[in-house]
Write a structure and sequence with these properties.
With 152 residues, the protein is an alpha/beta fold. It has helices spanning 26-42, 55-64, 82-90, 106-113; strands spanning 2-8, 48-52, 70-74, 97-102, 125-130, 143-148. α3 (82-90) crosses α4 (106-113).
Length: 152
């Protein structure tokens, strides 16, 4: 069984020089710290983290404080659709586990294909257990095993 975790970035400022440059707000920083603590406590690790090039996703990754494998910053993950995110996961090079940090509506749409019916709030992590190698990832073949949203 392989593991694909999908994370919507933490809460960001409403305004920035550009949408791409919007930074996390105070609540977003607290969300990251809480989620990072939970990830460490349950012992989740990732072979690869794919993260959008946007400021708020980069800051989300930083705030989690993960000790994981390779980090791939992806311009294509910025405001992308579920199909693009699926391709990025497949091409990540991960063997056992991958984390993708991106944006709505793409992350919500990706998780919906796996049976998760709700819109992902900021800093919501959806863990998918998949029967295929990550290179053959298809969300429709996966099961939602956990959904975590830190309340801060």
């Amino acid at each position: 069984m392989t593991k694909v975790c999908v994370l919507r970035h933490a809460k960001a400022e409403k305004q920035g020089d550009t949408d791409h440059a919007r930074a996390l707000n105070e609540k977003g920083g607290l969300q990251c710290a809480a989620l990072g603590t939970w990830i460490a406590e349950v012992g989740i690790t990732f072979d690869v983290v794919v993260v959008s090039a946007a400021t708020r996703t980069q800051e989300t990754l930083e705030g989690l404080g993960l000790e994981s494998g390779a980090i791939e910053v992806s311009k294509a993950a910025y405001n992308s659709d579920a199909e693009t995110l699926t391709g990025l996961i497949q091409e990540s090079g991960a063997v056992d586990s991958v984390l993708i940090i991106a944006h709505n509506p793409g992350v919500t749409d990706l998780c919906a294909l796996a049976g998760h019916g709700a819109e992902l709030k900021t800093c919501t992590l959806v863990e998918l257990e998949c029967p295929t190698p990550i290179s053959e990832f298809n969300p429709a073949d996966c099961n939602v095993s956990r959904v975590v949203h830190p309340e801060v």
